[in-house]
Every structure is written in C-alpha cells, then in structure tokens.
C-alpha cells in the first residue's frame, strides 16, 4: 500500500513539513557523498544512537571516570541528530512519503510550533526508550521512524475514519484504492522489514530500525494530540 493523499485542503502551507522533508533529503544526499568517499560508517556511528555505547559511557561517568560525561553529553546530542540520518533509499523514501501525506494535515491542526515540538520530542523520547529497552545493542539506530510514528499516531487519533487515497501495487499493475487511515497504523510497522532495500555501505549493514522507539513515538503522538484536544 502506497499512501498518496488524504484530500484535506487548506490555505495554510505546511512550512515545517516542507523544511523537515528538505533537511532529511539534503542530509541523505550528503550521506551519498560520504558513501562514495568511504566515510559514511564514521558519520553514522557519530550521529546515530548506539545504546551500548551510551550505557557504557553513562556507567563509567557515574562510577569510574567523570571525564566520560563528555561522551554521555555527545550521545544525548545525537538523539535529535539521528532523526535526520537514514541508512537506505527505502527508509528515506518511506519516511518522507508518510511525512508528506500525514504530516502536513497534522501540522495544520496543531500549528507549526507544536507540530515541530511533537516531531523532535517524540524522536528523542523514542531514542531514549530504545536505549533503555535494548541496552546491549551495538548497531546504530538512525532515521525519523519514531517521529513519523508519532505523527501517524496523532493523525489516527484525530482522523480515525478518514479515507486515504492509495495505490495498491500488484506485480506490474497499480490499482488506485481508498484505505482507512487506521490501517496504515499496521502497515507502518510491517513495512519496516523492507527498509533494508537499497542500503548504503555502512559497516554493520542496514542499521536497527528501533521498534521500541517507534512504539514510544506512536504513543507520544496519540497522547500529545489528546492533550491538545483537551
């Protein structure tokens, strides 16, 4: 299933969504250049969330060496930065598509500031949840998956019965259909298994999609929109 549009029209321009899409695409183009020069592995390791490194640095800082707080601080800075790094063509295209279809409507309903707050806060909280739930993971967790899950969660709570114009690919035939927005909640997690397609040359292959982070983002988005409605 490929979402195309939700048919909500408004004179308000989703400026933040435009900027988020542009920044994600711009950094991905930068990654392609680093991939050619063989420097992408270090870039992803520095910008990505690595739970094992974060937990090790935190333990050392608390019990052994106070200088390790520098590493802890950098790992915390990497939480929002990792939202803009992607490990494959399928991951960046999937995230951008969902951000475009669902994000612009959520932005128009929340307003620019609250929408941006939701995007960043959900992504950071999702990264923290991934560190807490999978402390031994040594593979970088990158991508805006948690933030997009939050937007999807907010959309489903706000517009659970809206029909999404979609394309259903059947081998070489593409059938236009209308699918309830709620079904994309399930499809979002299913399609994560395809995000390894078109992977860049990263040392550990395609990085971990961070399911705990996405679940946390989904819950954050749903809770945020309910709080705003009240």
UniProtKB/TrEMBL annotation:
Main subcellular localisation: membrane
Peptidase S54 rhomboid domain span: 74-227
GO molecular function, one term: serine-type endopeptidase activity
Source taxon at top rank: Bacteria
Membrane topology, record value: Multi-pass membrane protein
Transmembrane stretches, start-end: 15-36, 57-77, 83-103, 115-133, 139-157, 169-190, 210-228
Keywords from the named record: Hydrolase, Membrane, Transmembrane, Transmembrane helix
InterPro entries with a match to the protein in the record: Peptidase_S54_rhomboid_dom, Rhomboid-like_sf, Rhomboid_protease_S54
GO CC terms: membrane
Cell compartments where the protein resides: Membrane
Annotated family: Belongs to the peptidase S54 family.
Record's protein name: Rhomboid family protein
């Amino acid at each position: 299933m490929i979402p195309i549009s939700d048919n909500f029209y408004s004179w308000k321009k989703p400026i933040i969504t435009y900027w988020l899409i542009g920044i994600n695409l711009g950094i991905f183009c930068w990654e392609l250049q680093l991939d050619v020069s063989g420097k992408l592995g270090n870039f992803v390791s520095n910008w990505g969330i690595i739970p094992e490194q974060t937990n090790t640095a935190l333990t050392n800082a608390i019990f052994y060496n106070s200088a390790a707080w520098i590493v802890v601080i950098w790992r915390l800075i990497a939480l929002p930065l990792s939202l803009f790094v992607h490990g494959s063509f399928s991951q960046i295209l999937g995230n951008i598509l969902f951000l475009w279809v669902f994000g612009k409507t959520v932005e128009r309903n929340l307003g620019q500031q609250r929408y941006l707050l939701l995007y960043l806060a959900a992504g950071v909280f999702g990264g923290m949840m991934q560190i807490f739930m999978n402390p031994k993971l040594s593979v970088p967790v990158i991508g805006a998956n948690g933030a997009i899950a939050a937007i999807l969660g907010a959309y489903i709570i706000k517009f659970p019965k809206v029909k999404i114009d979609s394309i259903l690919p059947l081998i070489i035939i593409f059938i236009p259909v209308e699918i309830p927005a709620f079904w994309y909640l399930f499809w979002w997690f299913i399609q994560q298994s395809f995000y390894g397609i078109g992977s860049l040359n990263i040392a550990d292959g395609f990085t971990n999609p961070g399911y705990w982070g996405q679940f946390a983002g989904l819950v954050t988005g749903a809770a945020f929109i309910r709080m705003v409605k009240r």
